[in-house]
Automatic annotation (TrEMBL):
This is Membrane protein. It comes from Pontibacillus salipaludis. It comes from the Bacteria. Keywords: Cell membrane, Glycosyltransferase, Membrane, Transferase, Transmembrane, Transmembrane helix. The chain crosses the membrane at residues 12-32, 44-63, 70-88, 146-166, 243-258, 270-293, 394-413, 420-439, 445-465. Residues 135-280 form the Glycosyltransferase RgtA/B/C/D-like domain. It is a multi-pass membrane protein. Its main location: membrane. It holds the Pfam family PMT_2.
Amino acid sequence: MVKLAAAFQRFSIIVIMAFGIVFFIAGVLSNFQMSEELYSLDVFTLYLIGGLIGVLFVTFVLNNFFSTKWFVITLLSGAFIARFIWIFNADTQIYSDFSMLYNGAVMASNGDFSFTENSYFTKWVYQMGFVIYEAFVISLLGDHPFVLKFINVLVGTGTVGIIYLIGKSVFNELVGRVAGVLYAIYIPAIVMTSVLTNQYLATFLILSGIYLLVERFEKGKISWLWIGILFALGHIIRPIGPLVILAVGIFIMVVYVLKGNNKFTSSGKLLGILGTFFFVQMIISQAFIGAGITDYPLENRDPLWKFVVGLNHETTGTYSRKDARILSSLEGDAKEEKQKEMIEQRLSDKKEVFILAKDKFKLMWGDLDAAVNWSLYGIEAPDTKPLLFKIEKAMFTIFFLFGTVALFALFKFKESEVNPGYLFLLLLIIGYAMIHLIIEIQTRYRFFIMPSLIIVQSYGIYVIWQQSKLIKSGKKQEVHEEVRSS
């Protein structure tokens, strides 16, 4: 039985790694295909080469000139300054869903919850978590969008620090440093600070839970409680908890339970995380209902819509006004039946479904990040916008290139050589990519998964760096040195 469990564990890890390799290779191909369509090849190649040289230079500096103390101070100061300068200069207009959420928060801060009768909030009740967060800030500090943007700066800076800690915990100090720096200068992570989005706080909370998972799950006696709380709070701000919880379940089963060591303790902690996650959601949801804020639990009351749009061949899985018009006159069971009919019809031709999935992947993981458009909405920036797009595109392509290196390097290593936390990051990346093959896509949705992707690809940079002539002529280290030292 023990041998069977060990064999199944090895098989599961191989499958996860294989899916990871496919994801990163497909990402490389998608980025080069889209780049060829968007830019002349020589321009993009110039940015790409410049980016690669820049990454290696940054790695050299980080490896040789900073103590841990001064690195952390410099990293967080630089991340804060870059983000603050952006919100100070970018007068981003509040519009679309962000306007709906902000206006609702202003009303809620004054004790007026009539906005909850709007169909937007009766269908997507889960948005109320973020609205109440914004309302709380407004009631304390006043109705000034800049305050909320400044909190984005603080939370975004904190996220940079958490990414450094996760990279250090899962791999080593240098990987953590590279990951922290790259996220600190990643264009969408900077420019979205001026957008009143729920992505910043949710990402920070969930990443904090991930750090406790990879660093303290085995060591901490009640770490499971804080992990569950952080994941639940992150989900209440932005509903991505189910994917995270599924990845946690698979990760703990594969890494700890199948291994056989303390499997009952690991199983108990997993149940603790799940129980805490759902209990916190239930308590907050019931508190909102009891306070008269909303009549419904914090959930999606129109769950089929994302699949209707995501399987739309005409729009390649992006928002469809035509679908919205078709369903706008329907309610209740009639609407649900029509949605099911549309989904079944769009799934009927398997060949077309495969083509749709391929095209959606190419758009989701190869197209320009819409964060730049959201941030510069209402701002005349004829020179800034193209430059930001080109830099972001080069960085994003580099991430996939080094991510591919990381996966091939990790694939051949023995279990004892690396912290198994990398498997959780891979599960999260793979799951996020797969779910977006069937639901609505927007490139700004990449925001949540970018920290995990950047951490994994930073290990690829580390592997290349360890083999470079720069290291061989200076402090030569083995590829796995410090992997588990932290």
